[in-house]
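Researcher: Here's a chain I'd like modeled. Treat it as a single chain, no partners, no ligands.
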Amino acid sequence: MPVQRSGPPAPSRSRLPAPETERPLAGVAQQFAAMPSAASWARRHTADILARWGVPELVDDCCTVVSELVSNAVRHAALDGGPAVCRLVLKLLAEGVSVEVWDPSPDGNVCVREPKALSESGRGLAIVAALCGAPPLLSAAPGNGKAVVAVIPRC
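Model: Modeled as a single isolated chain. Structure tokens:
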């Protein structure tokens, strides 16, 4: 279920790998409790926002990307102490939709890898890269967690 609270500071714009040459047409941020249900809530939120923005053709790809990135964030968000959150930022661009997912983990090891043939995990970032035409980008700030950004292009 979405968590409505202020949460961690946003990474500075100078460190974000999202396209800086293009000003977003619209944007929205939402925090989710870092729980197993977060990916489901994030998909619902994404579908709703994209419908409001009038880009239904991107819903399936965006929801797949959001699901993978939020699932990874939840997996890595566990910190000592209180409940952790992850933050989803969606930006409507003329060229597509930017998906940014932040988690508090200081682990900046995000890479697309070749999973073993019988492995049940390890394919998510490869799927994100295929849907976006490029691997997701990482922005890590020591002590402030990391953000993973992927841009789903309009066809």
